[in-house]
Write a structure and sequence with these properties.
about 25% helix, TBP-like, Lipoprotein
Length: about 230
């Protein structure tokens, strides 16, 4: 992929999954994973299960890039990290952000970033990721250069409200990406809340699930091979 192959996404909307705060997502470099939802009835989903699912999608997309580096778990610096983040969910989506969030509801994101990636390496990698995601049944919602920023991206969605993608930022020589899912209720929250209230007198508001760091992102296991996403 080069600047002339794919036209700028004029007027496109960088959106994805869940109802969440775009401020947190923008900080992780994958703001395109956010959009407003008007559904305030969320299913019970174990955060650990959702985390495995999202990191699985990200590992699959990362392996498809064909990079020969590993993105270790945890946070090293603003250019190199591999972590989970979560956002609150609101009764009527992002547009009702002034209202209190739904207690016990969360929207989980897996985000990663890798520095020191030049254009010659990044753009062919994005093409490989696009081809792989399309072959795996993802709907490609954007591929190419941003209209205003020096950024190239592949963004994809699938049924159930899930998104994944990768972006290369020319200014920082940084490749970052991630996966996100729709809002869900933490089934363990009511029990945890009651326990904290018994022990501390007041548990406070729901701060999102507590998770360990995700597995490392590694190159494809074999030439042409891919790590399977977890469903």
């Amino acid at each position: 992929m080069n600047e002339s192959e794919v036209p700028a996404g004029k007027g496109r909307s960088r959106r994805g999954v869940g109802c969440c705060s775009v401020l947190t997502l923008a900080a992780t470099g994958i703001g395109w994973l956010a959009y407003a939802s008007v559904d305030s009835t969320y299913p019970d989903v174990d955060p650990e299960k959702r985390a495995r699912q999202l990191s699985g999608y990200s590992r699959d997309a990362y392996a498809a890039l064909g990079m020969d580096r590993t993105v270790e778990r945890g946070y090293a610096d603003v250019h190199n990290y591999n972590r989970y983040d979560s956002n609150s969910c609101y009764p009527d989506g992002l547009f009702s952000i002034a209202d209190p969030p739904v207690e016990g509801a969360y929207q989980l994101i897996h985000a990663w970033s890798m520095g020191k990636v030049d254009r010659a390496e990044a753009l062919p990698a994005l093409r490989r990721a696009r081809d792989h995601l399309k072959a795996e049944g993802w709907r490609i919602t954007h591929f190419g250069k941003d209209e205003q920023l020096e950024e190239w991206s592949v963004e994809a969605e699938r049924d159930g409200g899930f998104s994944t993608g990768v972006t290369w930022e020319a200014e920082y020589h940084r490749l970052n990406g991630g996966s996100g899912g729709p809002c869900a209720m933490d089934p363990g929250w009511p029990e945890e809340k009651r326990k904290e209230e018994m022990e501390q007198g007041y548990s406070g508001s729901y701060d999102g699930p507590t998770l360990n760091f995700p597995p490392a992102l590694t190159p494809a296991r074999t030439p042409g091979g891919r790590q399977a996403a977890i469903s």
